[in-house]
Amino acid sequence: MPELPEVETIARGLKSSLPGIRIIDLTCHCGSALAQDAETFRSRLTGRRFTEVRRHGKYLFLMLDGGLALAVHLRMTGQLYLASSKQGRDKHVHLEFFLDNNARRLVYRDVRKFGGFLLLNGTTPREFLAAKDLGPDALQVRPEELLHACRRTRRQLKAVLLDQRVLAGLGNIYTDEVLHRAGLSPLLPAGELTAEEAGELAKTIRRVLLEAIRRKGTTLSDYRDAEQNRGGFQSFLLVYGRRGEACLRCGGSIHKIRVAGRGTYFCPHCQRAASMP
DNA sequence: CTGTTTACCTGGGGGC
DNA sequence: TGCCCCCAGGTAAACA
User: Which residue of A27, A153, A158, A220 is 20 to 30 Å from A239, comparing CA positions?
Assistant: First the structure.
C-alpha cells in the first residue's frame, strides 16, 4: 500500500536512527530490487555513512556521504525497517544493510517484488523527481495547481488525484477517503470542479494525510513502519473496504465500483457526481 | 498527445 | 485438503 502517510512514517523512523550510521556491508538476495547490479551497489555503498532521510510523495531518499543517494519506492508490498541482529530473515527479504552500530541492520522486504532501490550518483533527488515529471508533494499542493490540473482534462476526478504528475503521494485508499470527506464523487468529470471545491479539496487532502501520519499510517495487511509496527489509521477509514456498509455521514450504502482501473469505494448519496444544481 | 489497459509478482480468500 | 479463479495498496509500458 504504502502511500504518503506510510512513507512519511517510515521516513520519520529512519531519520531518528540512520544519520551518522555507516554501512559495513550489504547483501542482496534478489536482483530485481536493485536498478543497478548487486556488485555496483556493494562496492559503491560499503563504507558510506547515511547523512539524511528525505521524502517526496511515495519516494524515500536515503542520502549518503560522497554525493550518493538511494531513491527507494515501496510500490505495493515493500517494507523498509530496522531489525535486530538476532531477527532472522524469510524468503521475502531482498536486501540487508549491515550497520556499524552492530546491533541492527536495515532490511528491505517485498512480497510482490515491485519496489526497489535506485542508486543516485551525482544526481540530486530534485533532478530525479523532475526527470520523472513528479508533481508537488500532496502535503504542499496549492489549490490553484489542483484546479488547473482538473480543468485541463476530461478524466474522472479520481484518476487526476491518483496521477503522480499532478500531485505526489495519494494512492487508492487515501484518494477514496479524501473524496468522501470532500463530498465529491470519484466519477465527477474533473473539469467540472469549481475553484471553491478545489480549495476545499486541497484542504481535505492535507487534513486526511496529516491525521493518517498522526496515526502512523494504515495497515491492512503488509505495511509496517521502520520499527516494524503496524499503523492505526485503518480504524478511521470511512469508505475504503466498507462495501455494503452504511455511510457514516448519511446512512446510505457504500458502493464499490471500478474507476481508473482501481477498486473504488464511495457513497453515491453524499458524494457529488454531477453538475451543481 | 491523451487516456485506458495490461504486465509485473506473490499470496490470500472464496467457490467447488 | 486441493485446485482454480479472482483480487490486492503502484507504476510504466503498451496500446488505441
Answer: A153
First to last CA, chain A: 37
The span from the CA of A162 to the CA of A168, in Å, is: 8
Q: Are A18 and A53 in contact (CB under 8 A)?
A: yes
Q: Which nucleotide is nearest to A176 (CA to C1')?
A: C9
- Tell me the catalytic residues of A: 2-3, 58, 262
Sequence letter at residue A244: G
Q: From start to end of chain A, where are the E strands?
A: 23-28, 50-56, 59-64, 68-73, 78-84, 93-99, 104-110, 116-121, 255-259, 262-266
* The model's pTM: 0.96
Rg of chain A in Å (alpha carbons): 20
